[in-house]
Amino acid sequence: MLKLHQMHTFTYLEWVSRVRVNTQAVLKRAQSIQGQKLPKKQWQSAWLLKAVTCIDLTTLSGDDTPSNVHRLCMKAIQPVRHDLLRKMDMHDKGISTAAVCVYPSRVADAVRSLKAANSSIPVASVATGFPAGQTPLESRLQEVRSAVNDGATEIDIVINRMLALTGQWEAMFNEIRLFREACGDAHMKTILAVGELETLSNVYKASMVAMMAGSDFIKTSTGKEAVNATYPVAIVMLRAIRDYFLCTGHKVGFKPAGGIRTAQESLVWLTLIKEELGSEWLHPHLFRLGASSLLADIERQIYHEVTGQYAALHELPMA
């Protein structure tokens, strides 16, 4: 699908600049994944619980307050009603979301809430001028350092799309390396904002540069663009992850984000990851779902499987 030159022939940046993506092959693969049969009944519930454990439960709103961040954290600790988990014999399996994700100014609130609840769920913070990434470099670096100092153990950075669109791959690599250093021991997820990269070839190139620069994850979107996580884009990013693993032996994680709202969609994403990268990637240390409203629909589907009826709005806790 990807017409690649041999890496040993060029430096890595020269190699990246020569990559071309076969768009029609990507679209055909995306169409096939959407047409596959998905798990049903108890198997569906098991896969949905797997999806829950991979969610970065997120609030990135202008009206975020300590109180709604606290509520988010409590939901992350108990994402599915205890009585429903008990009926599935999963009440003692430590089901929680993978992380909570907030703005840098709300990191301390999240850390405080989780610590008070004696929870080890990681706090992730967006940074580097999220969502546009257009603030001065030093401001973006300071935002990363501030979030880490407040207790964030995962940082979701955004790339400077101008560098990708103008083919300045070395400059983009150098910026991401600086963010990597500022993160210290915190995991770094690099948001490509794929809806603004114009071509699938740019998506692949940006994916490779981000991984070469030390990203622990590559992430599709901020959730603020007109186009967010789509299957064609995901396939290109997953193939980049696979190529990088085959070349280096290093596994990089993947996080689709933006517009993922239904339980059925989460099953498609899990299926795609399993088919493209294998079961080893179906764990929170290598796969995350960035979502704010997805959890509510997953809990609704689990309620239906357990009780045989759909929950009224007042019967499930707010996410």
From TrEMBL:
SUPFAM superfamilies: Aldolase
Active site, per annotation: 219, 255
The keyword Lyase is assigned to this record: yes
Pathway involvement of the protein, from the record: Carbohydrate degradation; 2-deoxy-D-ribose 1-phosphate degradation; D-glyceraldehyde 3-phosphate and acetaldehyde from 2-deoxy-alpha-D-ribose 1-phosphate: step 2/2
GO CC terms of this entry: cytoplasm
GO BP terms in the entry: carbohydrate catabolic process; deoxyribonucleotide catabolic process; deoxyribose phosphate catabolic process
UniProt catalytic activity: 2-deoxy-D-ribose 5-phosphate = D-glyceraldehyde 3-phosphate + acetaldehyde
UniProt cross-references to InterPro entries, sorted A to Z: Aldolase_TIM (IPR013785), DeoC (IPR011343), DeoC/FbaB/LacD_aldolase (IPR002915)
Keyword Lyase listed: yes
Domain of life of the native organism: Eukaryota
Family annotation (Pfam families): DeoC
Molecular function in Gene Ontology: deoxyribose-phosphate aldolase activity
Enzyme Commission numbers on file: 4.1.2.4
Family per record: Belongs to the DeoC/FbaB aldolase family. DeoC type 2 subfamily.
Name of this chain's protein: deoxyribose-phosphate aldolase
Originating organism: Oryzias sinensis (Chinese medaka)
Lineage summary: Eukaryota, Metazoa, Chordata, Craniata, Vertebrata
